[in-house]
Amino acid sequence: MDTTLRDGEQTQGVSYSPFEKLHIARLLLKELNVDRIEIASARVSKGEFEAIRQITDWARHNNLHRKIEVLGFVDGDVSLNWIRDAGGKVVNLLCKGSLRHLEKQLRKTPEQHVNDIRDIIRKAQQNDMDVNIYLEDWSNGMIHSPDYVFYMIDSLKDDRVERFMLPDTLGILNPDQTYEYCKKITERYPNHHFDFHPHNDYDLAVANIYSAVRAGIRGVHATVNGM
């Protein structure tokens, strides 16, 4: 999955117009044959809404609309409705992948978080939308609270989740750690699809992707020129 238009746009000094986003989306899907693209975050701005609408209109006419993904939040149906109204069919739901993030940021129990996520999955199904789950701060979760990570996946693996996506949110992993933690996941859940989402804080993103693939990860996230 290419996330140049979402995570890449967080690069300092980078901002795309709706026209530029549409042009890049076309190149990624038509010229480079990228499997999927993540194009925006929900609820950011009217300009972002318009960019999503233009891309999803084009994608629908080219039978590519299920390849277009938008980051959403665990906020009831607010993000979900925003993405739906912009024409999106795939939500990448940003959930908590470490106990510290859950307790410090959401101040909820794991059980409450799972229930909130399930409610969004159910609403997405009602709107004919697919859901992937980001386990934000997953790398720290595997280091400091692996039982919580396993609880989250165990609780949601039989729901309608297309993919679990494992981010190294703070860019803290090295290739050996990436292999170790990804291998634990793929061995425990051999029948589920996992993506690895690296960050390049220490110039290890490419090396970590190779380690993730060796560990059995089925999908990797990238950006044009490593933005």
Biggest sheet: strands side by side, in what order?
A: 1-2-3-4-5-6-7
What count of helical segments does DSSP give?
9
- CATH superfamily membership, which one? Aldolase class I
For the record, the CATH class is Alpha Beta
Topology as H/E string? HEHEHEHHEHHEHEHE
> Which structural class matches the secondary elements?
alpha/beta
Q: Mean pLDDT, nearest integer? A: 96
Strand content: 15-25%
Helix content: 40-55%
Tell the overall outline. globular
CATH topology: TIM Barrel
Count of individual beta strands: 7
Which CATH-level-2 architecture?
Answer: Alpha-Beta Barrel
- How far the N terminus sits from the C terminus, by CA atoms, comes to 14 Å
Can you put this structure into words, describing what you see?
This protein has 9 helices and 7 strands. It has a single domain, classed as Aldolase class I (TIM Barrel). With 227 residues, the chain is an alpha/beta fold. Helices cover 46% and strands 15% of the residues. The radius of gyration is 17 Å and the shape is globular. Strands 1-2-3-4-5-6-7 form a 7-stranded parallel sheet.
